[in-house]
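Example 4.3 (complexes with small molecules)
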Amino acid sequence: MTAHILIVEDESGIRQLVQDALSEQGFEVTAARNAQVARAAIAEKMPDIAIVDWMLPQTSGLQLIREIRLAEVTQSLPIIMLTARASEDDTIRGLEAGADDYLTKPFSTRELVSRVRAMLRRKQGHSKHTVLQNGDLTLDTASHRVSIADETVDLGQIEYRLLHFMLSNPDRVYSRAQLLDSVWGVNHFVEERTVDVHILRLRKALRKHGVNNIIDTVRGAGYRLTPA
Ligand code: CA
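Answer. The structure with calcium ion bound is encoded below.
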């Protein structure tokens, strides 16, 4: 599977340079010019690695990294920080905020590509392969496959993440706001009723395979997945 890299940098020259260098190596690259665009990009498709520039307009790279670390769904997203500041103090601040690695500007694209590759290798080594089950329903995190009695269930990204989250925490009631934080992560621009829409889609997809009533609506509270 092609690795997906997100680059967050407001300087178009550097953004383009990074995008070109990584695309040339066969990576799928999403470019964001600020934190807001980055949040939306993450919500739409979770990258394998984020490259975040320290100096960004409005929300700084440092703040964005903290946000990414706080949200459950993105907390283990590997981050490479770009910085024009070579001082040890700043580097430490960046790493403390949650960056896994950093590159000081100016950097060579070869160096960047090799850091990205090293990080992907580490990620593959670490990624724990989990199979979550609830009755006939199985979710395999390695293949991203959801199946019911061996039939594949077609799910969108968000529905998959919702189900993954709820299967990991069964029999607990989650409010819409909690689901937004955990499943949508850093994108705070989504309205709470969006959760209802995706729960509906998830239920519909499961129902096609004969699984009903696995996700309960708890009136005035939110949603709960019932263990089989
Ligand atoms: Ca910048």
